[in-house]
Amino acid sequence: MTYLAKPALHHPTLPKNRLGYTRRDYEGKISTLCAGCGHDSISAAIIQACWELDVEPHRVAKLSGIGCSSKTPDYFLGNSHGFNSVHGRMPSVLTGASLANRELVYLGVSGDGDSASIGLGQFAHVMRRGVNMTYIVENNGVYGLTKGQFSATADQGSKSKRGAVNNDAAIDLVSLALQLGATYVARSFSGDKAQLVPLIKGALAHRGAAFIDVVSPCVAFNNHAGSTRSYDYVREHNEAVNRIDFLPGRDEITADYPPGEVTEIVQHDGSTLRLRKLAADFDPTDRIGAMAHVMTHQAKGEIVTGLLFVDPDAGDLHDRIGTPKTAMNRLGEVALCPGGAMLERINASLR
């Protein structure tokens, strides 16, 4: 029997962030996914983003559903809160946790089966309600735990490892997120760390529903000729709408940008997204334009990546329903149960 364990000791010269943590402090257990799985690259990007943002691990709540992707929270942020929900129900569990304690940073990790099939209704409502979260879908187009059947995001006409052709139209979660009101929408590729890390940093700093669809090839069942989720296909058909870096609003963090046009977006917490555009006419604050851009390039067989849309003035579910600034899990009985007189006032206001 083989036991997998990481060494407890850290090299004393490892670089540290402002909190005094090394990157190792944001890691989790050793992955048991297939060697070369794109999901492990996404876990590494989450680790890098949280380390660079100086996120306190104990302030993060990571939630997931069922599937290969939903196993990955075990592989990052080992010192954070975690909850593995039932299949497709991560959004509702996360919503409840967020309403009880708004002081945590909420990170939902899901897959294309977990979100686009059994959990599609849950995905739709968490986007339209504006729950303050970062929602990452690790999208490989197949059910990796049950021998590689097509998932609902598999492109029509793509082929399985055994040669079967998918005849069903694909569900595009990016287009759905844009239509349903998500206020930060992006797509990336697990093999493009330079693009993915800043996108995750921007999503974590955003207030509102932030969604990132990450194309993540399944090396066991969907990394072959004929698949539109393979490493080779995505690299050949990747159409990046912008080159992006992320700068939190702190003077000590700097970046070296290549020449080109820049769009600057200041968010509520003072952090700044700076977008390096490839196309001068692409506006990441135009929701309808982003939807049209995605569909236009889909028709050409191209996968659009980058920051597609962001609303710099977005609010979240707490703003909409007027919850108190103090986390509900710290309110006393008097505040939570104000008594019959208050109930009567509420009932009278509804008559």
What does it look like?
This protein has 351 residues and is an alpha/beta fold. The chain has a single domain, classed as Thiamin diphosphate (ThDP)-binding fold, Pyr/PP domains (Rossmann fold), CATH 3.40.50.970. The chain contains twelve helices and 13 strands. Strands 2-1-3-4-8-7-13-9 form an eight-stranded mixed sheet, sandwiched between helices. Strands 10-12-11 form a three-stranded antiparallel sheet. Helix 3 packs parallel to helix 5 and helix 6 packs antiparallel against helix 9. The radius of gyration is 21 Å and the shape is globular. The protein starts with 37 loop residues before the first helix and ends with a helix. About 6% of the residues have low confidence.
